[in-house]
Amino acid sequence: GAGVSQSPSNKVTEKGKDVELRCDPISGHTALYWYRQRLGQGLEFLIYFQGNSAPDKSGLPSDRFSAERTGESVSTLTIQRTQQEDSAVYLCASSDSPGPLHFGNGTRLTVT
Amino acid sequence: DQQVKQNSPSLSVQEGRISILNCDYTNSMFDYFLWYKKYPAEGPTFLISISSIKDKNEDGRFTVFLNKSAKHLSLHIVPSQPGDSAVYFCAASKGAQKLVFGQGTRLTINP
Predict the structure, then answer these.
(1) Is B88 on the interface with A (CB under 8 A)?
(2) A91 vs B: CB within 8 A
(3) Minimal Cα distance from A98: which residue of B?
(4) Which among A42, A68, B7, B47 counts the fewest CB atoms within 10 Å?
(5) Residue B98 and residue A33: Cβ atoms within 8 Å?
(6) Contact A98 B45 (CB under 8 A)
(7) What CA–CA distance (Å, rounded) separates A60 from A57?
């Protein structure tokens, strides 16, 4: 079946603009995660959804970052007033909780 | 506070030999451990996992060892193949909570 799908695969934006990243999880997976990987670093947890609610938002770096999930399916991660330090690969993963996470190929965000 | 640490950023191994990747953790509440493999421009893919009630789990060429007293886990790949060249991440969680990842180790298998 289809894996986790993320769009766009690449996004270049100017500093100060808002961006929206989309994640389509594996059908039926109840848990959805957003991670970020900056250049040369490990995966940094951002937020976790169980169904449509987010019991753990502890990794969101600032109030410029927000995420939502609807229909226990698609999730969007929104970054407002982007800064250069937001440049990273944003990875979405889903799981049939409990169980291993299945990752998408990520969105590479470049803020110029 | 780096709860999961991979102290070797890179490792080079000859084809056919054993690759050993190491990972240390600090949170004694972690009870589920995983290894992921990542190729460039792709998301991490799940390799193998182990729960804290076990000390070894094997899947083909891949074996994960867990030493709870030392808070240490390792991934053994034998024999190593060129296609194993990738970045390997270890990860840990407490129950069904978020996975905490290490910084990754870049493994290069030389022919």
Answers:
(1) no
(2) yes
(3) B96
(4) B7
(5) yes
(6) no
(7) 6
Residues A26-82: pLDDT tens digits?
999 999 999 999 988 889 999 999 999 998 999 999 999 999 999 889 999 999 999
Report the distance separating Cα A85 and Cα A109, nearest Å: 10
Mapped onto helix, strand or coil, the DSSP state of residue B32 is strand
As beta bridge partners, residue A35 has: A45, A91
Residues 6+ apart with CB under 8 A from A17: A81, A82
CB-CB neighbors (< 8 A) of B49 in chain A: 100
Residues composing chain A: 112
For residue B77, which amino acid is it? Answer: I
More confident residue, A98 or B4: B4
Using the CB atoms, write b or e for A74-106: b if 16+ within 10 Å.
ebebebeebeeebbbbbbbbbbebeebbbbbbb
Task: Please indicate whether, in this complex, the C-beta atoms of A91 and B103 are within 8 angstroms of each other.
Answer: no
Q: Report d(CA B49, CA A6) in Å as an integer.
A: 25
